[in-house]
Backbone:
């Protein structure tokens, strides 16, 4: 795909929200389009609906290949017939988040004046993303969700759903996430945003109108973020100080080391499938996320006497959203009197472990969903 | 995924002391065998707390609500009276601060059931006297038991924490005797393990 081609949206399923969407920043968006994908079938009373929330650079193609990018499904280990999120039993839906770039309204979409929003797009929050999802679910004629499940930024949405609409979610599964973006999280994403905005091809956010893409800046943003998604142990195991296609260092700034070559590949393969302005907006939404700020810093008060059943997962070597951040969520839920399960999986795969093969995690998730389905009568 | 497991007699005895449909917290729930039994035979609202990631994962795969956490630090989070029964099955002796854990349980639930190895058993007393060795299957420090107490010690500790012993059952050779509230000295002499049913005074 050429560098500056917008996604071919004809291959995407899109629903336009019937009502304008009010945003936390005070602005309103009209004719919001939500791109989505689904697997399985709803039951008669539509009580078996699971919403999958994707991470920063994910999309709605959780369980089937993306027809636009050709990339494979991102969660095929967990969603499918007979798997933990069993599509023979549940109706599974995933949407592209508000502000995203895979068919849902975002900064690359056209504003009412017919030109791309660019940085004229309002700054959005995780709360806005969930409000958009709630309007989308309602437009499909679904009253409530059996479960809302997501890792990383998807986990923030799973928490936000439970906070915003406790009567509309039976269970919430936040995975490898945080209820509050830390200073370190904000710092890493700020590096990424600055890299994008420092690229002359960013054109003050108007690159689409000028036929350009800030690919170098976006690639650097991805490289910086990617470091936080893998553990030091995994980098050492995979690359250590291994050299790339050479016997000795070249006394130059070529990619001498395998780890450099790997990061450059991660950066370059990212720019073809992601919009730079979307990256700015979605990382900003994560930075603004602090659930406890709604109750004077007491997260437990946000969930006081909640009817939602929770299942929280973390991974021992994750330093992006470390076990402690997830344990903090769990501790607040205990104090709130919520029914909560929590498991920290021993893994050396870092933050990305939530997408990878971890049998204990998959079986525990399956056990949680099965027992919840029994309680729900599905 | 469901496989037949033999039910441990001490688990069965504990289950018989738990009211139908009660809210139960099992501290140190391991792979969830006792909680599973309580759910199926007593229809309890079952929750577990377990330190080990591996066994907590097995309990969750069974569909149990389990928090992987440390009783020594996490119990203080639970609101007062959030459960009707709290259980410490073969777990209190592995804790770093057993008195504090027991005290927290007395706050969280009006009833506490505790089972543990009884170091008052006559043969254990003899081991110490004759061999000068702490009674343990192997080396005492590898056994994981940090609190080698007798039944009488535990009853006294519970009383100090505001928990009265309403019934106690001996376990000998894997068999559980009847719950009763007298003959404690004899029980302390003859029981390999004991199960205490405590209630807040």
Residues:
């Amino acid at each position: 795909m050429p560098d500056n081609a917008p996604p071919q949206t004809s291959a995407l399923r899109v629903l336009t929200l019937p009502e304008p969407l009010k945003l936390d920043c005070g602005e309103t968006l009209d004719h919001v389009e939500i791109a989505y994908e689904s697997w399985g079938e709803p039951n008669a009373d539509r009580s078996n609906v699971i919403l999958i929330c994707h991470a920063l650079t994910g999309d709605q193609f959780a369980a089937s290949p993306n027809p636009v990018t050709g990339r494979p499904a991102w969660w095929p280990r967990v969603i499918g017939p007979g798997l933990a999120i069993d599509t023979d039993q549940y109706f599974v839906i995933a949407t592209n988040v508000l502000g995203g770039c895979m068919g849902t309204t975002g900064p690359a979409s056209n504003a009412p004046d017919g030109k791309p929003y660019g940085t004229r797009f309002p700054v959005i929050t995780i709360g806005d993303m969930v409000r958009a999802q709630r309007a989308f679910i309602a437009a499909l004629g679904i009253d409530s969700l059996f479960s809302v499940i997501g890792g990383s930024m998807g986990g923030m949405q799973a928490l936000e759903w439970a906070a915003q609409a406790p009567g509309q979610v039976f269970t919430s599964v936040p995975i490898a996430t945080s209820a509050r973006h830390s200073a370190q999280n904000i710092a890493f994403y700020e590096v990424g945003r600055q890299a994008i905005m420092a690229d002359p091809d960013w054109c003050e956010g108007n690159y689409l109108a000028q036929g350009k893409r800030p690919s170098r800046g976006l690639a650097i943003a991805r490289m910086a973020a990617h470091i936080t998604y893998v553990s030091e142990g995994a980098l050492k195991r995979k690359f250590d100080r291994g050299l790339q296609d050479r016997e000795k260092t070249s006394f130059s700034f070529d990619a001498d080391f395998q780890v450099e070559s790997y990061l450059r590949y991660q950066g370059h393969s990212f720019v073809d499938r992601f919009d730079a302005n979307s990256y700015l907006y979605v990382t900003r939404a994560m930075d603004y996320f602090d659930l406890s700020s709604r109750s004077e810093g007491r997260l437990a008060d946000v969930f006081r006497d909640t009817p939602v059943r929770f299942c929280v997962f973390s991974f021992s070597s994750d330093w992006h959203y470390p076990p402690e951040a997830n344990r903090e969520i769990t501790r607040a839920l205990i104090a709130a009197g919520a029914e909560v399960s929590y498991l920290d999986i021993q893994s050396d795969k870092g933050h990305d472990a939530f997408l990878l093969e971890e049998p204990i995690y998959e079986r525990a998730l399956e056990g949680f969903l099965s027992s919840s389905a029994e309680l729900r009568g599905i | 995924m469901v496989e037949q497991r033999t039910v441990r007699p001490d688990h069965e005895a504990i289950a018989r002391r738990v009211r139908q449909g009660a809210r139960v917290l099992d501290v140190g729930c391991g792979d969830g065998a006792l909680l599973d039994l309580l759910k199926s035979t007593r229809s309890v609202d079952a929750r577990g707390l377990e330190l080990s990631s591996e066994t907590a994962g097995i309990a969750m795969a069974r569909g149990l609500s389990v928090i992987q956490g440390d009783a020594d630090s996490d119990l203080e989070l639970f609101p007062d009276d959030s459960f009707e029964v709290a259980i410490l099955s073969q777990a209190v002796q592995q804790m770093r601060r057993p008195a504090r854990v027991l005290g927290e349980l007395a706050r969280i639930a009006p009833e506490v059931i505790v089972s543990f190895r009884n170091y008052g058993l006559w043969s254990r007393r003899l081991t110490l006297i004759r061999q000068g060795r702490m009674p343990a299957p192997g080396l005492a420090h590898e056994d994981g038991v940090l609190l080698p107490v007798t039944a009488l010690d535990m009853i006294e500790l519970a009383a100090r924490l505001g928990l009265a012993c309403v019934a106690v059952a001996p376990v000998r050779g894997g068999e559980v005797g009847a719950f009763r509230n007298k003959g404690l000295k004899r029980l302390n002499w003859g029981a390999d393990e004991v199960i205490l049913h405590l209630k807040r005074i």
